[in-house]
Amino acid sequence: MGSVKHALASILLLSALSSAMRGDFSPTQEICNPNDKFGTYCPTTCGVADYLQRYTPDMDQQLDQMEQDLEEISNLTRGAQDKVVFLKDSEAHALKQAPDTYIKKSSNMLDDIMRFEKSILAQEDQIYQLQSILQANEKRITDLKQMSFELDRLCKEPCKETVEIQMVNGKDCQDIANKGGKVSGLYYVKPARAAEAFLVYCEIDSQERGWTVLQRRRDGSVDFNKNWVQYKEGFGYLSPDDRTEFWLGNEKIHLLSVQSSVPYVLRIEMVDWEGNKKFADYANFKLGPEVDEYRLTYAYYFGGDAGDAFDGYAFGDDPSDKFYTSHNGMQFSTPDKDNDKFQEHCAQQEGSGWWMNRCHAAHLNGKYYQGGKYTEKDTEYGYDNGIIWATWHSRWYSLKETTMKIIPINRVTVGGQESGSKNFGDI
Ligand SMILES: [Ca+2]
């Protein structure tokens, strides 16, 4: 740009000179000539004209050169402007393009890379987990092979014990005894309205009486803290030799108890820790259907030497105790189902299923206490929750053994005197 300025300055100077020339003098011959059209000025401008004359060709040349240079510069400038415009356009274009494509593209690529990294890490983790599972499975397979080997070995040995199920069937154990069942053991019974036969323990005595056993406690080996469904279906174990504890199941007890026009007697037999035995009988024992929450009903206390605990007991704390601890007409409650007459939840507090009132004077599904005696401190909620028959032992004394069993009423007499007459029986 410096050269351009210099050239422009020269042009201005020359223009000034040129205008001066036109106004005052004009180039003349090398030697001042008065005859020349500018001759009148000659004497005073001669030197200048002479000077100009001498330098005009160079000046013209220089001017031509300058014009050329200007032309070039002008061209260059235009080119530069074009270039600038082009660059601006390119920049604008690039700016426009960059975020949409390249930045986005590169950011997408980064995302992809991160995603792949994550996925690789997750897959490595998965591989590690699968390897662990594989190892665990291999160990399990080894264990199972070992067990299979052991079982195979055991199977080759002759069986030491068999459970014998008697071949006689009937609607209850008395029916089975009537049909020739002679020994106590496991039999299939099918009460009138039962969809299918089920297994029961029949106690068949020397007088050919068949007792269908509903409940058995003898050693505390079975936990009676069970829920509604378990009490409904039954739990524990039936054994052919009366060695195990169980609850036959409310649904089965219901079906058995309502099937016949001849009502049942419920007999409750109990043994304490001193080996004393007592019993209580209830006439017309029935268990309602599940829609009535397996309600307990009986007509009257039929006899026995244990006392009528089902009728409640006056513990002495409150005059209403007897009324609120009776069981006739009570619905069944379990820790997960409160059908009692108490503002709280007897079955839940005492960990058993029973025909709870508020709560009980008889409680044969209670907690098993070794030795019998227990205190509030032994219980979770401070309530008497043992195996109780309040008309015999204190409610803080838990019985050693119990049996609940039914028989058609015509097989027993009032007061528990056995009716041995076979003529009574065949029903
Ligand atoms: Ca309640």
TrEMBL record:
PROSITE patterns the UniProt entry points to: FIBRINOGEN_C_1, FIBRINOGEN_C_2
Subcellular location: Secreted
Location of the Fibrinogen C-terminal domain: 164-410
Keywords for this protein: Blood coagulation, Calcium, Coiled coil, Disulfide bond, Glycoprotein, Hemostasis, Metal-binding, Secreted, Signal
GO biological process: blood coagulation, common pathway; fibrinolysis; platelet aggregation; positive regulation of heterotypic cell-cell adhesion; protein polymerization
Keyword Metal-binding found: yes
Gene3D superfamilies: 1.20.5.50, Gamma Fibrinogen, chain A, domain 1 (3.90.215.10), Gamma-fibrinogen Carboxyl Terminal Fragment, domain 2 (4.10.530.10)
Single annotated GO MF: metal ion binding
A cellular-component GO term for this protein: fibrinogen complex
Signal peptide residues on this chain, from the entry's feature table: 1-20
Protein's UniProt keywords contain Metal-binding: yes
PANTHER family in the cross-refs: FIBRINOGEN ALPHA CHAIN (PTHR47221), FIBRINOGEN GAMMA CHAIN (PTHR47221:SF9)
Subunit structure: Heterohexamer; disulfide linked. Contains 2 sets of 3 non-identical chains (alpha, beta and gamma). The 2 heterotrimers are in head to head conformation with the N-termini in a small central domain.
Protein name: Fibrinogen C-terminal domain-containing protein
